[in-house]
């Protein structure tokens, strides 16, 4: 069988789909990963054939409408969620031409789309084949669908659809302990962290000394908006550079070089979080779903400064469970960040709750366990 997996414009979306795509390929099926041009290196890095589908920068979909006119990002929670659906829908439109050109030569038997990959149901409808919605984080994103349907009205009509079709299967990686009661029925799957790797030095997997270790990261957000990501990391370095704590900053090498210049003596660079996280006592980040799940899998508490409506929702779920604290990045003073970090470092309760979620994840079926379910579609 031939499977088409569709990611988006950040490396995290590729990494989220990679474990199941690899399991399907290892079972002997033909697999392709479609994604935006800027993340083709990440697709190649996970060993999958990559199909580049749009050269448009990710931020253009967020800040501009289809005509190129600027749009205003809403601030409210409900409005922000709906808006997310609309800009992911604009991305889907930009992806369609190349996707349909590719699939004309290699028609898929099953289409697997990431959480907000609205091109997936359209391509599946074109060929009359099943489509699978595959969560790439622990956040319920169905609230974005109305915004996507509104943006895609013309495309849905052209494909003979009254609205976005329901997926034939939903693969969810959210740990049961924080999965919303209203979440749609799903086949649950264990989160397997994937990222770009590097040759490992001992400090990446073992502490240099007995001090508590904090990992600070802004995930792939740094590559999407370098200025904003750099500003976030700089503020957090100032708040977390404590004499009794070892601070590591996981960031792309170009950003890390600037951080080292601005903060002499700091250890910053590309660090595979799946290797690093188990040696950490705290992960501080921007609310990225893959970062949060990777920390959870290692049983590490988190301090989250969420960026965007979905990040706020995901952070709140972990706070409610007791595995994290969350601060508004626009209002958190350095002293407040320092205080929250110390609370998490020295609170057995937060670590215990994070450990509960790690065990939740470990009990779920692994990606190879879902291959027969996909082929049965």
Automatic annotation (TrEMBL):
Domain annotation Erythromycin biosynthesis protein CIII-like N-terminal: ranges: 23-219
SUPFAM superfamilies, A to Z: UDP-Glycosyltransferase/glycogen phosphorylase
EC number: 2.4.1.302
Top EC class for this record: transferase
Residues in Erythromycin biosynthesis protein CIII-like C-terminal domain copies: 236-377
GO terms of biological process kind: antibiotic biosynthetic process
InterPro entries for the chain: EryCIII-like_C (IPR010610), EryCIII-like_N (IPR048284), Glycosyltransferase_28 (IPR050426), UDP_glucos_trans (IPR002213)
UniProt keyword annotations, A-Z: Glycosyltransferase, Signal, Transferase
Extent of the signal sequence: 1-23
GO molecular function, one term: UDP-glycosyltransferase activity
Top-rank taxon: Bacteria
Family: Belongs to the glycosyltransferase 28 family.
Protein's name in the database: L-noviosyl transferase
Record organism: Actinacidiphila cocklensis
